[in-house]
Design goal:
heterodimer, A: alpha/beta, Peroxisomal Thiolase, Chain A, domain 1, 2 domains, five-stranded mixed sheet, B: alpha/beta, six-stranded mixed sheet, about 30% helix, disordered N terminus
Chain lengths: ~300, ~375
């Protein structure tokens, strides 16, 4: 028995006036993901949102609840003996999807849940006012199910390297007109500032290499036997650089088309979707997810691929 | 960490639930228990009278009579979500008698993630700062966000990891520097019909709970059960303010309360059925603290719908206000310090939060009371 990926989907939009919001794109991806798996929203036990940058920087409620309502996953009053959906947000940057899968897999192992969807989505909360926001407007969804006789996700690991915390930083803060706020030049309002320093990619590769080596030692997973590396990072070069360091052929790395390079939390969904499209996922048995981002946080998951993923 | 422990499936009711026993063989490998609970309550106090008196439009609102909130503590200079969380975390570790390095998992559950003033942290997660500050170098860490149900959601997650044997000890922690919403609301509120009125009840606090592995069947956490009634997801929305540091929150409080009161009896009935308890067998119900009136009204409805009443319905909103995700643990900590609990007492923690999130954690008091000098 194991937690398997039943389907993935993504939705992206260009930055333009009246562009879809990150919530709308997340909703769109979730609906498409369910459609591809021929599942109904009402079948979901769990809905976990991992998106960070919400429209207007919504802070409450959990964005997951809005998605649940929008896609119609048991939003109403509880009927006697009926079925419900539990939603909340999991915030761990680019490693959010792996973190949410870790949590969902646990609830499936313990029998509390049989199915769940992990969604992601980011958009510039205030175009024209935010600083340093370079991500593409996007949403993503990954449908997870508990399957008899299949392995699916077998191991997870989350490691942090706080000594490099200063290399990536984002916050919504207030700027005073006298320049004593978060940044100069944005008087009298709250705004998002994303700051990424030089060397972030290189440090992430180093940290991910260490994390993968520890993961291999701790779990016994043979990383060199990886058929497919799904590596997620703000910089598209991360996958190849990590593959070189941990002894995986660059041919086994999922490479996203250029227009998807600037996704953020939805990167793992986009990579799985791309791997389904180019056939590399169907041909792979041993899949390794490695996601690295702010913190530096590295999320790793080993996945034994024994079933078809709809994309 | 071993993440491969297979456990057989059980039927999933309306609520996403974990209850003993859950496995085909009859038992989860382990139980979990609260090993220590800590809080950090800032010293400065703002009374409801002072808050309303300072409001820009001088509304004629008797906030204390309306909500039961006499005063709330607010963060002082240099305090923020992180400092409140770390202060609470340190006390929880001390009460549990363990070192931060003993923690396998740390889950930060704050709605507010303010650092260095009113700068809301987006990335890296606040959990990283907390674990660095307290020295929990081994802990797997991440943030969750689930409005005022955040800490109990964290307990739900951590309890699951402990019961399956994946982790031995972990911490759920939150620091809520949320009083800025009250200050911002005071600029706008004109009448009791204001959509920002609920913000005037908010207070600041940090809370943390250490959970640890216990033998299967031991006293400790019983049922954890959650659901989201998302058709009400837009009844309470919070955003950064456009005119001041911090955030603003718009709440259709009356509708939210009506929906909560309407749905709670049926959901609580399901949890009581799972736990094999009647309501009048519960020693303490600790609901989320939004308003004394709402809690009292809810108690009457529960009694009418479910029959009987819990022995104690806990209300501590008078001194703290609504401290968001930390309210249950402030109440627990207070009652532990005052020696009100005795081993064997049945406690129901009940979350009602924006979303609409509904969650319940039940536990049986054990020798946790000894950590507070009140062994019986």
């Amino acid at each position: 028995m194991g937690t398997v990926i039943e389907a993935v989907a993504t939705a992206v939009a260009a930055e333009r006036p009246f562009a879809p919001t990150s919530l709308e794109l997340t909703d769109r991806a979730a609906r498409e993901c369910l459609r591809r798996a021929q599942r109904e929203p009402a079948e979901l036990d769990l809905l976990l949102n991992t998106g960070i940058y919400h429209d207007r920087n919504l802070g409450e409620p959990a964005l997951a609840a809005l998605v649940q309502e929008d896609i119609g996953a048991n939003p109403g009053h509880p009927p006697v003996g009926g079925h419900g959906t539990f939603s909340f947000d999991v915030l761990n940057g680019v490693a959010g999807v792996i973190t949410a899968a870790f949590i969902a897999d646990g609830f499936m192992q313990s029998g509390a849940a049989h199915s769940g969807i992990v969604v992601a989505g980011d958009a510039d909360p205030q175009p024209g006012k935010s600083e340093g926001f370079g991500y593409r407007r996007s949403g993503g969804a990954m449908l997870l199910g508990w399957r008899e006789g299949l392995a699916g996700f077998t191991q997870f690991s989350l490691e942090t390297f706080p000594e490099f915390e200063g290399l990536f930083h984002s916050a919504v803060g207030w700027s005073e007109p006298d320049g004593h706020g978060l940044h100069l030049g944005h008087a009298h309002h709250n705004f998002l500032a994303v700051e990424r320093l030089d060397g972030f990619l290189e440090r992430c590769v180093e940290c991910a290499t260490i994390a993968v080596e520890r993961f291999e030692a701790k779990t016994g997973v043979d990383v060199s036997a990886t058929d497919l590396l799904i590596a997620s990072h703000d910089d598209a070069a991360f996958g190849d650089l990590l593959a070189d360091r941990v002894g995986i052929s660059r041919h086994n790395v999922v490479h996203l088309p250029e227009h998807l390079h600037s996704l953020h939390t939805a990167l793992p969904m986009a990579a799985v979707e791309e791997a389904v499209r180019d056939g590399s996922l169907a041909a792979a048995r041993h899949i390794l997810f490695v996601c690295a981002g702010a913190g530096i946080t590295v999320g790793i998951a080993a996945y034994e691929n024994q079933s078809e993923v709809a994309a | 960490m071993d993440t491969t422990t297979p456990v057989a499936t059980a039927p999933v009711p309306w609520m996403l639930s974990e209850a003993s026993p859950v496995t085909a063989s009859g038992h989860a490998p382990f139980s979990s228990r609260f090993a220590g609970i800590g809080v950090k309550i800032p010293e400065p106090i703002v009374t409801s009278v002072d808050l309303v008196r300072g409001a820009r439009h001088h509304p004629h609102i008797d906030l204390e009579r309306l909500t039961g909130v006499h005063e709330r503590h607010v963060a002082g200079p240099g305090e923020d979500s992180l400092s409140l969380a770390t202060g609470a975390a340190r006390e929880a570790l001390d009460r549990a008698g363990i070192q931060a390095a003993d923690l396998d998992m740390l889950i930060s559950c704050s709605i507010t993630r303010y650092r260095d003033g009113l700068n809301m942290r987006m990335e890296p997660p606040l959990s990283l700062d907390i674990k660095t500050a307290i020295g929990a170098s081994r802990a797997t860490s991440f943030d969750i966000s689930n409005a005022c149900a955040g800490m109990l959601t964290g307990v739900f997650i951590l309890n699951d990891f402990i019961r399956r044997g994946v982790v031995r000890r972990g911490m759920v922690v939150s620091g809520e520097y949320i009083s800025a919403l009250g200050r911002n609301a005071a600029r706008e509120v004109r009448t009791i019909l204001s959509s920002q009125l609920a913000s005037l009840t908010l207070g600041d606090a940090g809370a943390a709970a250490v959970l640890e592995r216990a033998p299967a069947g031991a006293a400790g956490i019983g049922i954890t059960s959650f659901t989201t009634l998302a058709e009400h997801s837009r009844l309470c929305l919070a955003y950064p303010s456009k005119s001041a540091p911090g955030a603003v929150m718009y709440t259709k409080a009356r509708t939210l309360q009506e929906m909560a009161l309407e749905d709670t009896p049926q959901l609580l009935r399901e949890v009581l059925r799972l736990s094999g308890m009647r309501l009048d067998e519960v020693d303490y119900v600790i609901p989320h603290q939004t308003s004394a009136r709402a809690i009292t009204k809810g108690e009457r409805i529960l009694s009418r719908e479910l029959g009987g009443s819990p022995k104690h319905m806990v209300i501590n909103i008078q001194e703290y206000g609504n401290t968001a995700s930390t309210t249950h643990f402030l109440a627990l900590h207070r009652y532990l310090e005052e020696g009100r609990f005795k081993p064997g007492d049945k406690v129901v923690l009940m979350a009602l939060a924006s979303g609409l999130e509904f969650g319940i954690v039940t536990f049986t008091v054990d020798d946790l009371v000894e950590k507070y000098g009140h062994g019986h």
